[in-house]
Amino acid sequence: MDTAELRTALRNAGMSQYQAEAYVALIQLGAASATELADACAVPTARIYDVLRDLEAKEYIETYEQDSLHARARDPHTVMNDLKNRAAQLSEAASEIEARWQQPAVDRHMLSIVKRFETVFNRAEELITDASNEVQLSVTPEQFEELRPALAVAHENDVLVKISLHPEAGCELELPEIEAYEDIVTEVRKRTLPSPFVAIADRTGACFAPHANSVNTYGVLVDDYTLAYVFHWYFQTALWEVWDVIYSTQSEAPPIVYTDIRHFIQDVSPCIRNGEEVSVSISGYETDTHDPIDIHGTLSDVYYTAVSAPKKTPSFSELAGQVSLTVDTDTDSYTVGGWGALLEDIEANRITIEAIT
């Protein structure tokens, strides 16, 4: 760096043009009278005294009387610290600008496209921690380990946690020990193919990122009830339904809890065919007012639009159309739909089989 570049750098660091001129000249001279210093740099003699007072106030130089006003540069420790602090502050500002550019305020947008996987992962942690009903997650075993603290919070909050484990591209799937799932997960399935990172919480927020070897690198953050439904169906059909269960806490005897009406119908269909009485409790919202509602009663009817043989349990794809239940309580009869229900009385968030007789 030559002398001119040094003076420019000092001006960029907060010095005035005259201060930078005088300071660089004084470093080279060591000590000089005010008039000698003015002659050695581009500071007018009429201004040199003010400039020296300003530099002394910054503790960059010191002045003394010797027939006339003289000045000498102080140990550069102070100015060096000032420059380093400014450099650190500018570096932090640059990093913050980059982070804000890459991480939009997801709470203000229904759909956000981001460039860094870390942004997607951090948002997924937030969604999982704040979940109140269900978490659906497609992750590698390593990502599962990183999300364990957030999943533990969700489990503690009585959230149903469903995890689809998949390998990294080009790697074999190495599953955690069974103990790793305890008090963390409701059900785990293994998918043998590399898959995107997907996190869905309460079917209202979703995070998506392609797998590492994807041609395109991006992430999608969804904060919208309707858009999250698309990711829910992708998770159910491609990442969940057809893959083997390797861990489950779901009971085979009541009480049995469901967050998906279609899975409930799959399991309860044999009971209906056998003429058994199924007592259920429903937690959800009234579709006309969206007020919370909880009912307890007996399942009197199951309806779905797909046509299937009467003696077989309907597949998940056969239940892709409208599905609903009819539940009789002591005082009334209610129709119950699943996520996004419009035609039924109740949109169910959670269905519990209380008894089968």
Task: Name a few traits of the molecule.
357 residues; alpha+beta; Arc Repressor Mutant, subunit A; Endonuclease, Chain A; SH3 type barrels; 3 domains; 8-stranded mixed β-sheet; 5-stranded mixed β-barrel
Summarize, please.
The protein has 357 residues and is of the alpha+beta class. It folds into three domains: 3-78, Arc Repressor Mutant, subunit A; 106-248, Endonuclease, Chain A, CATH 3.30.870.10; 256-356, SH3 type barrels, CATH 2.30.30.
Structure report:
- This is TrmB family transcriptional regulator sugar-binding domain-containing protein.
- Keywords: Coiled coil.
- InterPro entries: TrmB-like, Tscrpt_reg_TrmB_C, Tscrpt_reg_TrmB_N, WH-like_DNA-bd_sf, WH_DNA-bd_sf.
- Belongs to the transcriptional regulator TrmB family.
- It comes from Haloferax namakaokahaiae.
- The structure is a single chain.
- The protein is α+β, with helices and mostly antiparallel strands and 357 residues long.
- It has three domains: 3-78, Winged helix-like DNA-binding domain superfamily/Winged helix DNA-binding domain (Arc Repressor Mutant, subunit A), CATH 1.10.10; 106-248, Endonuclease Chain A (Endonuclease, Chain A); 256-356, SH3 type barrels.
- The protein has nine helices and 17 strands.
- The strands form three sheets. It has an eight-stranded mixed sheet with strand order 4-10-9-8-5-6-7-11, with helices on both faces. A five-stranded mixed barrel has the order 13-14-15-16-17. It has a three-stranded antiparallel sheet with strand order 1-3-2.
- Strand 2 (61-66) and strand 3 form a beta hairpin.
- Helix 6 packs parallel to helix 7 (141-156).
- The protein is elongated.
- The model has no long low-confidence stretch (mean pLDDT 87).
